[in-house]
Structures
1.
Amino acid sequence: MILVGGENLIDFVQTDTPDGAALYQAIPGGSCYNCAIATARQGQDVTYMTPVSEDALGAMLEARLAQDNIALAAQRVSQPTSLAVVSLADGIPSYQFYREGTAERQISYQQLIETCPAKATAFHIGSLALITGADAQAWEAFFESCAEKGMMTCLDPNARPGLIANKAEYVERVLRLLGSATLVKLSDEDLAYLLPELPLLEAFEKIRALSNAALLVLTMGQKGAIGATAQHKIAVPAGVASPLADTVGAGDTFMGTLIAQITKNGWDTHKALSSLSPENLQSLLEVAATAAALNCERAGCNPPYLEELHL
């Protein structure tokens, strides 16, 4: 069983601009929530750890999880659903978030321990959940406890600089988590924020030296991706989205595919993942790139199902 924590919210995604007035469609989302769906759609048993609101938008979020047989670990709560407004320029999203006092922030370490299924084998966290507050501290502590149990721990910072008031606190948390993560995915934008003084590939190598991850992956949009273990480093081109709708959820789909394929192939231990052959590492990255491209052919985050990947 794969556990996923982190934010759930409703994306109000721009769909059109008739007469100069933008129209928005309400789509269930959130980076970690999207990753849970991407993982489940590739045949994995997924449990989502974060509380969902009892309001109407929370009902939308729960219904979408149920469609892909994702179990809820936490009881639904009375606080409102978080919101994100996603505006598009040439298919590239920009985000505004509203999540103070919302349902997905109602987290404690004790609650996570009590609701953690005994058969869990992996845990993923990242994005908004790690920014600040008691909930970020709880997620960090739970991540560390999962690592101590020998579970595969998966980290995708997916940094949102516009929401980070205390950069030093956030960067320190991410760097601490790197020490106990099995699988780490960062984007070129993440590295530009975390290590702005270094060129991209030098920043990647510095993170590689700081991290204890069995597999470290760098995604670079249209420039493709790089995956590195202790023994090998492989670069693959980006998948081709034809036609391109938008890039919302592309990184989440890439990460969910990594988790799903690693689990499916029995590579979900530090030893197995760090010992991947160059051929298996290349294949893993290519499947993730293909899945991300298929997602980009659809509006919003809508990851592909396993049969769409033609494996």
2.
Amino acid sequence: MAHEIEINKDGTARFAYSDTGVAPWHKLGTRVAGLQTAEKMLMAAGADFDVVITRVAAVDSEGNLIRNSDGSALIINDSRATVRQNTDGSFDSLATVGTRYEIRQNSEVLERALAVVGASSGDAVMDTVGVLRGGARFFATISLGALVIDPAGINDKIARYLVVSSGHDGVWPIRYANTDIRAVCNNTVIMGLKEAERTFTARHTRNVDTALEDAQQVLKISTAWARQFELQAEKMLRVKMPLGSTKIDEVLLKVFPEEKGTARQKKNRDETMTLIRSIYRNEKNAGGYGFNGWSMYNAIVEYLDHYRGTSANERALASMDETSSVTQKKLIAQHAVVS
């Protein structure tokens, strides 16, 4: 699947990212020094435009305006259109929307998100900002700092973010979601899905302001989720899994159960098991943090995010999708380790 980041006519991308993290897989966008304020990151990404809502008129197949008998334009009364106002005075059509649709500018959605996490528009907390689908959608990542797991022990850090997304297409709502990535290899760690509502959603309708006032709950969820993650990670750290342990076999069998299949499928599964055991032993996992459940969990996550037999784009999307089979396997691994 394509990255869907908007590319300008001059070939530049409407995307900006901080050099505090790794470069994006698509190698597009503007690299900025350190975390930025919302205003500066919106400008760097070309996402600081305004969107207006207009009436929709009928045109014929050649683009000529269809008129009523009195010469006035034929208006489609049950539809509206969103249009981007560019800084050079030009306009871009984005989408048709319903009559109840309410515009919320990218800057406004981001300002609300900053308030949710206790930051202001002048705080340098922005990690990424991007424009998708020709301007019809927008996203941003706010850095929330780092949570230290077992600070007296392995000192493994989990970076925390609030991912913001919104659409001007009448389809994509305003959404604030918590995402946590291990700083050592940037794996997306998705935990606590069953225990907490990690995503706040508000539709672009007339009650959007009232709905966004409730978004403070996202931070409460984030705080509770982070504490739950800390407890779960420390629990996994206490599970001893030396090489040759039957516990390793038990976990792998639960995540990758044996199924009836061809000889080739069985061989592929055996190769997967061998590869994960190798990843488990390396310096990013057991070689650095000991032969325990935390290292095994991260070995499985590393395989799913980086080695699984599909394209890099598909692996990245699956890691960010809370409903994907990859996410489900990560949850199974988490519970299998501590059970």
3.
Amino acid sequence: MKFHRITRWSLLVLMGAVLAACSTTETRRKERSESFGALSADQQKAVLKGRIVEGLTHDGVYIALGEPLRKRKGVWKGKQVESWVYGTIELYTMPAWRYTGFVCRDGRTIVSPEYYPVTQSRMRDSLVIFFDGDKVIGWQEL
């Protein structure tokens, strides 16, 4: 039986993803019920469907999508803007070989290759949301 080796980093990323997946729009809505109540009816519908619309607040985006991978500050068209970056976990397998040697009865050494793939993960940015102050001004799917 062959086993795929998973690195510690990959395991930590996967565990984080599983824990993050435990958070749903409903649990986040309850967590920030006051902010959710302050949204318009159209914004509330969008947020509960996990969608982003212009004018949403930080809390509205958090309720819709959860915590971003990272937050960045920058300047766009002369304005201070903040961007939230969301991503997905990709698993990939790197081909690897290891060689096992053994000695035959007649004294010859034989080296046998064995396929030993290594499974790793990486985060890939998939969505960036741009804020002017506390309001969404746009987003870009990557």
4.
Amino acid sequence: MNTPENLLYTQSDEWLKKEDDGTVTLGITDYAQHELGEIVYVELPEVGSTVAVGDSFGVVESVKAVGDLHTPVGGEVIAVNDAAPDSPAIVNESPYENGWLVKIKPDAEPDTSALLDAAAYTSYRG
């Protein structure tokens, strides 16, 4: 299982990266894409939409299952990865780089106290 040290993780298998400009990038973990199997459909929100902590921000569908994506931060969606809905396999191939899903401008400093670091996530999913 690939679990980059520079990210934070949710127990529902999303990852979060705090960017230098204060925004956050979200995606699903390597563990999640592996468990889902071949991803065949990705639905993402519209740029400009707002989300609250815990809201669903999209859907990932695989040959095995359908899963809602949940955000650990609230704010405005400022970018979506247009490649993901067009080529869903990108999430399987590169969940942390090319397969990112959304970028959010938080409406407040994100509370990351409930998120896991790489070691804790690896232990949780171990």
